[in-house]
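Probable multidrug resistance protein NorM: structure, please.
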Amino acid sequence: MRKFFGNKAFYKATLAIALPIMAQQFVTSFVNLIDNIMIGSVGSLALTSVTVANRVYLIFNSTMFGICGAAGIFIAQYYGAKNKEKCQKILNINLVCGFLVAALFVFALLIVPRQLMEIFSSQPVVIEESLKYLQYAVLTYVPFAFSFSIMMALRAVGINKIQLLVGVITVATNTTLNYMLIFGHFGFPVLGVQGVAIATAIARFVEMFIYMVILLRKKHMFHFSIHGLLHLDMSLICSMVRKAIPLTVNEILYSLGLTMIFLSYMRCDESLISGISVVDTVMQIAYIVFGGLSSAISILIGNRLGANEIEEAKTNSYRLLTFGVMIGIVMGTTLIFVAPVIASFYNVEDIIKQTIVSLLSIKSILLPIYVYNVCIFFTLRAGGDTFSTMLMDSGFLWCAGVLLSTLLSVFFDIPLVMLYAIVESCDLLKLFVATYFFKKGRWAKNMTISHEVVY
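Here you go.
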């Protein structure tokens, strides 16, 4: 039993890392839910348009997650090896890469916005509303890349309370501005979906400004240096690229896979697609365990690997896996009971409310399985086994979820809820794939001394 359950000190250390991240993600996700309800109160057209427009942002966010994830692997292990200078150099590389990726997405959205929206919707009225949203939403990409790079670096070394404070300020700004700009309160014009985009852009710049101040004050191990950004460590770049390529490719393929599945849902019944948006937003709250546990895994496993304490890292992995599944069971059970209450908040048709309840019920039942797979994903990643993470994550998604959803939506007249249940149930099969890679143990390596590339 000791293999699966830790002592008080272990759980205290885990919660000290996880709770601030969970709190931050809860605040952010809860406010996103409130924003989602605000947009939904305008009408299903507004909700669908924002959902469609944000598909590009999802791909961008996944790309950033891959790049920052690779940086986080090295930062966590070098921090465990007590090499803070290398940690700073990795952050510098991450900031430059993040800016370049954001600039690429901004360029595409400025040059061919309509063509991008036509990929995700065939309805002219939805496309027009999406373009109104994108006019201002494009301003969020660069500040988000900057903030996200710093946030993930701080998270990799266990500095989490700052992120919670920044998150509270950011979401408070975003929610207040949404209330004023969507509905035209306090003398502001009624801007609808454009108001959502403007509010988000302002909030992102506020967030970036706060993180810039944090780095410039140099009160923590990271700082901001123009010289450091212009003189990057090429040997570190090469090491990071080896890990970043499969991880970033995985995130891009995964987000593209989700987009393909989204298109399959659109083929089933585009009138119910706003229900998917609601469920995605609600599940962000349920996924707070995702952020907290991923940080705990990165630190409690990554630091131990960096300190060359391999067996302790393996023990931590089993304990965190058990802990995650237990939390997933509690959260999934709770979500089943609150699903009808959540649906009642939305000013949408009854059929959409019924769809929301059905989709949330499916998600909640499978939540413990999802958390199990997530814990293994981050365990493999903490040890640099990024190729295995790509196979079990995006590889499995395309071979199972994308293939099934495409075939069923194209060749069969299948209801949206049934297709959703089939796609989500693929996580049950993924559990066996994840367990196989976990048991192989190729992730249990110290990269700070071996410099071994895991393929």
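Notes: Residues 181 and 195 are 5 Å apart (CA to CA).
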